[in-house]
Model the fold of this input.
Amino acid sequence: MTTRINPSILAADFANFERELGRIATADLVHVDIMDNHFVPNLTFGLPMVERLQQVSPIPLDVHLMIDDPDRWAPGYAEAGAASVTFHAEAVADPVGLARRLREIGARAGIALKPGTAAEAYLELLPEFDQVLVMTVEPGFGGQSFMPETMPKLRLVADAVRAAGLDVWLQVDGGVTVDTIGIAAEAGADTFVAGSAVFRGVPEEQIAALRAAASSH
Ligand code: DX5
Ligand code: ZN
Done:
């Protein structure tokens, strides 16, 4: 099975993103957390930053929009060249319309579910998406603890993807470490976001350790 490790630059040095990208050359994608201080109680950066990152990053960008009104803002990130753009189910007005727009522009379309959001209503929409992000912490901050209680939901989505024969990546985000990644892999995740676990140590060593822990579950 393919294992993707997407380091989150939320845990990187904000004054040196270009240099930080050089330390994660073995990553599959770079996870970019956009927070607007409305959908989540924290603020990071927005479109101009992503446009510039896209120019300097040798690694494709995996944009996670923790913002209100993604219907209005998400297409801009796809136009900037992000490989994937994931918006929150709790914030979007027209998930299918927005996913189609993102795909038309050329990005992979992702939908994210907060820990308390049930997946059932979205299962029939799976063919419209390239990625489902099951949040394993409450979105807003790095460095929180993995919530194993989200695993039945991940398993449900994984089963639905498999049953329908779809190529939808299953992503987990929040508290992913060498100790928790196996739990998520076992439940069906194939794409793992890790912020503090990667940037806390030597990033390329951490990425290798996460990759090994995910595949040996
Ligand atoms: C949390 C963000 C995550 C965050 C993960 O709201 O969506 O991407 O960077 O950080 P860690 O890996 O430290 O939990
Ligand atoms: Zn994220």
User: Anything to note?
Assistant: DSSP finds nine helices and eight strands in the chain. Residues 161 and 200 are 33 Å apart (CA to CA). The longest strand covers residues 30-35.
